[in-house]
Amino acid sequence: MANFALLFLITCLSSSNRYSFNNGVHRFWLYSTDKPHTPSSQTKPRCEIQIGGYDYSSGVWQFEGEAYIPSGTTATSIMQVFGGSFRATTIMLRVYDDSITVYMSPVVLSNTYN
User: How sure is the predictor about 31, in pLDDT bands with cuts at 50, 70 and 90?
Assistant: First the structure.
């Protein structure tokens, strides 16, 4: 185990109503009618978790998470890791028409709604 403290920075418009941490599980959720995560943001609704204390520049790292994707969701990012060499992100998982893709392709999982 690493010999340093982890920093979890949660950014949501209404984090007290949309974020919980129980039994080691971080959980947050959004609705399509939500406002962006900050008043000055030009993005659509979102929540972010920033994990500090790890060096993502080398080694092998694993992320595990679950997402509920309501029917009709499309062109939506569900997970991204910043710090890519050729673009801003190392990876971005997006939803397009009932499928999860890496960026816009390839499809990595189909039939994801509900």
Answer: confident
- Pair (49, 98) in one structural domain: no
Into how many domains does the chain fold? 2
Q: Residue 61 domain-assigned?
A: no
**CB neighbours (10 Å) of residue 37?**
20
pLDDT of 67 strictly over 80: yes
Range of the domain at 101: 67-114
- Does residue 60 lie in a domain region? no
Peptide bond into 45 cis (omega under 30): no
Give the residue-averaged pLDDT of 76-100. 84
3-state DSSP: the chain helix, strand, coil percent, rounded to 5?
5, 40, 60
Calpha distance 53→5 (Å, rounded)? 6
* Mean pLDDT for the stretch of residues 41-57: 70
* H or E segment to which residue 17 belongs: helix 15-18
